[in-house]
Amino acid sequence: MYNTTQPDPVRLEIFKNLYQFIAEQMGIVLQNTAASVNIKERLDFSCAIFDSSGLLVANAPHIPVHLGSMSESVRSLINDVGDTIKPGNVYLSNNPYNGGTHLPDVTAITPVFLGTNIGNKNNIPSPIFYVASRGHQADIGGITPGSMPPHSTTILEEGIIFDNFLLVQEGEFQETAIRNYLLNHPYPSRNPDQNIADFKAQIAANERGVQELLKMVEQYGLETVKLYMQFVQDNAEESVRRAIDVLKDGSFIYEMDSGAKIEVNVKINRETRSAKIDFTGTSAQLNSNFNAPKAVTQAAVLYVFRTLVDDNIPLNAGCLKPLEIIIPQGCMLNPTYPAAVVAGNVETSQTIVDALYGALGVMAASQGTMNNFTFGNQKYQYYETICGGSGAGINFDGTDGVHTHMTNSRLTDPEVLETRYPVQVESFGLRSHSGGKGKYCGGDGVIRRIKFLEPMTANILSGHRLVPPFGLNGAEAGKIGRNWVQRQNGTEEILGSTATVEMQPGDIFVIETPGGGGCG
Known about the structure:
single chain; alpha+beta; 9 helices; 22% strand
């Protein structure tokens, strides 16, 4: 029998990699079986495994904003329907007030059972683990195609909410129920067939995770697998405490294009080797959709502290243990239902990260936006996030044209984009001299020009079109981004940070993304 108080270092390394490997396997299945460009080409998805109480154990290095918040979705499932969970069930969840991020990010959660596992008094076995995959749906309803409306004011205008919806019941796929649910809404889904195909891919990805975990249990025994799940979390906790040991107190106020501000105060406690991250003073919840659900705010904090760790650890629940996070209820980082949140997940999450790096004095602001670009009509719906410059740090330059921080997705290959949609990539290149100058320079943004061949509605949800990404220690800020449309007749139409615009054949949508701030 193994020591149950101290992990064996070799075994710890093996298990740490095994858990991560399972999540990576799930991701490969999801990518191979998905139908949408969003999941298949842009890789806008995340997979992870959780212990029996819904705490994150390990994930593949997918999308940070998904990974830090998925555990909330799993825990909400356990709290809401825990005593009715049966083998063969799969649940769908995307409610931002229950661990979700924004409505297009739909999570499929599968409980893992052991054949002989006798559970509660009704003799229903209890799950030994959970696996989950979250994928960004190309359209989940709402007031604009692509479900990223720039001007939504309530969550209902953003699409369809799933709250632990039973997608597979004891092995039976609930196709009629899910189709009715997607269509029976004030703003129904525009492409239920594609939603259903992607949900099936998520079920398949989860099934791979289930099989791999059960194989692991067969090889090492349930007790050992559970024990090392705890050890892996403990190890991550210790790694974060070591990172905290070298940090100093700090605070930062970060203003956004809308005038809203994020205020953060970080206090380091040397004795307990812990940090208190306090967002008191942040703007109250907004009438716009830049409110970030609490799960997103936590994911951003978790991401920052994970990046300060040099060790190769999986992001997991242990990383949160040394952190006390204070987010006043009703502020823009912890809004109350039914506040709109679609941009909070993609835009405000980036601002939180930069504000934290600013408070810790570690790194200048990156482009601080995902430059969310959607276009579509009843037939086509497409969504992409566009790269920009990353911020310089105290001993390194920023990177040009890269997805920064909370987004980690690809851009669709031009060939695929032009085959699947009636558009052309007119040009796509670096935006030189857009990074802030300093001892270390910020990275440059990019310029992306998309020409439309059919009438469509285009939407942009972005930030740093008015406020430049800050430089650190006296260095220059990065250049602000610009959104504009070049009409076929040669006229130019300048757009704000968030805009909806009707595109006609021959019109070109131009997005110039911000550069990162310099340092020193």
